[in-house]
Amino acid sequence: MNRFELLGLLQPTLKKNLVICNIGLPSQELYRINDQPNYFYMLGSMGLASSIGLGLSLSINKDVISIDGDGSILMNMNTLATIGNRAPPNYTLLIIDNESYGSTGDQKTFTSEKTSLKDVAIGAGCEKVIQCTGDQTLENLNKALADKVYSYVIISKIKSGNVPVKPIPLNAITIRDRFRKSIGLVPYL
Amino acid sequence: MKISQKIISNLKNGGANFFLSVPCKLLANMIATLEADNEIYYSAIPREEEGMGICAGAYLGNKLPCIMMQNTGIGNSINSIVSLLQLYQMPVVFLISYRGTPGEPVGAQGGMASITEEILDTLRIPILHCNTEKDLEKISIFTNHAKVIEGPVAILCNFNLMKED
User: Rounded to the nearest 10 degrees, what angle do helices A78-86 and A49-57 cross at?
Assistant: First the structure.
């Protein structure tokens, strides 16, 4: 299973929740599969999908799912310590670990060698850490959302590989405003 | 403690209600004050760039976030400021202890101090300089200004001001 197939399988759950999606092909594939206003697509700032979702989950009483990648987690690994110590139960971090930098040509990451993001997450203080195959991911994501006591980190180990997709034809303000509207927020000022 | 209490009070009056910090000894009293404040969210975090991401999420959830850090933290955060906060037009208040300004005992802080304002100017981030206690009165309206312009603003607190805290 590759990322495109996994994101397709997860739609029944993702489409009903607030999703912060990692920059590059993850966002472009998610847009292509099933664009939703409650999907926040990152157009920059690689590494921060986990952090944006954390900030949102600390600010509202709704479930928030951050979809991140192994390369992005490696770029902002301190985020696991912050999540381990501060994440509320309505926050779920889904790391799609294909052991490669998919958006830049599938160069291998350190998770293809010695690094275990599961062990890092546990060591960083995350209490509920699940590593699973692509096929088991939807079930585990639903389990994480159903648990109102703990926040979860799910590491979905899948194959490398991408589907040819175009850049997202939405500008940042459109993504921002329709996402905030989907939360039901009144205008900010 | 009076300066840090004035700063926090003015930030809150301006609407800030979600606080993060990467520590600085000049921010220590402010951090202690925030830790004891039940009206707002506060957490320490390990790195400023990560904080920009958390602030972006807090804004999406309708908070007005404030991140407290040394000026060195701006250097750690430039891409996240431009490609996240400014790209999506997200208000965030940077409360910055301006290390390397006169009174600073650590010579090595001079390097980042010498380019801090140029970096902020290059980023087109409005700056409020706080040099005296009187300047702190402007913090409230400047905090609200972040909401009005839908982008980050920076409050620079000089070393000599903060050491009187």
Answer: 20
Give, to the nearest 10 degrees, the angle between helix B139-149 and helix B2-13: 40
Q: State the DSSP code for A40.
A: E
Number of domains in chain B: 1
Residue of chain A whose Cα is closest to the Cα of B147: A189
CB-nearest partner of A45 from B45, B53, B61: B53
Q: Find the domain containing A32 and state its range.
A: 3-183
B162/chain A closest Cα distance in angstroms:
28
- Helices then strands, counting H and E runs in chain B, come out as 8, 6
Ordered strands of the A18-21 beta sheet: A39-41, A18-21, A64-69, A91-97, A152-157, A128-133
What's the pLDDT at B160?
Answer: 92
User: What was the pLDDT predicted at B165?
Assistant: 87
What CATH number has the domain bearing residue B63?
3.40.50.970
Let me know if residue A46 belongs to a domain. yes
Contact A176 B60 (CB under 8 A): yes
Domain carrying residue B132: 2-162
Least reliable range by pLDDT among A34-43, B89-98, B156-165: B156-165
